[in-house]
Amino acid sequence: KLPLTVEEILNFGESNRELFIKSSTYGIIPITVTEMGLTISWIFSSDPKSISFSVVFQESEDTPLDQCKVLIPMTRCNSHKETIRGQVKVRNAGIYTLIFDNTFSRFVSKRVFYHLTVERPVIYDGSDFP
């Protein structure tokens, strides 16, 4: 699966995407980011039951996963009962990976419905100053 780029996320529109995660496995959404200062935001829900969620940062595709920086530790989310929202600020260029972990579920596959957005910082240049 190819990493998403910021441009692809900007073209998502308002629609939700769906990720199917089999029991005892996990699904990932890698996002390649080249510019600093962006904010990556997500909204997701799962069906049926809960899912675990984490965000890690990788400087490059060559960086071993055990050397990735954990930005949001693996957390069990009751995303079947409520929509989970979050965001991460891009401090370094690299790959930001959203991980949906269903390894704790031995028999139940899950569907994760998610929506991603990317916001560029508003830089005030003083051009509207009289």
UniProtKB/TrEMBL annotation:
Give every GOLD domain span.
Answer: 1-118
- SUPFAM superfamilies the record matches: Supernatant protein factor (SPF), C-terminal domain
Q: Which domain of life is it from?
A: Eukaryota
**PROSITE patterns according to UniProt:** GOLD
Q: Name one GO cellular component term.
A: autophagosome
Write down the InterPro entries for this protein, in alphabetical order. Answer: GOLD_dom, GOLD_dom_sf
GO BP: plus-end-directed vesicle transport along microtubule; positive regulation of autophagosome maturation
Q: Which Gene3D superfamilies match?
A: GOLD domain (2.60.120.680)
What positions belong to coiled-coil segments?
none
Q: What is this protein called?
A: FYCO1 protein
Q: Give the organism's phylogenetic lineage.
A: Eukaryota, Metazoa, Chordata, Craniata, Vertebrata
Gene from which this protein is expressed: Fyco1
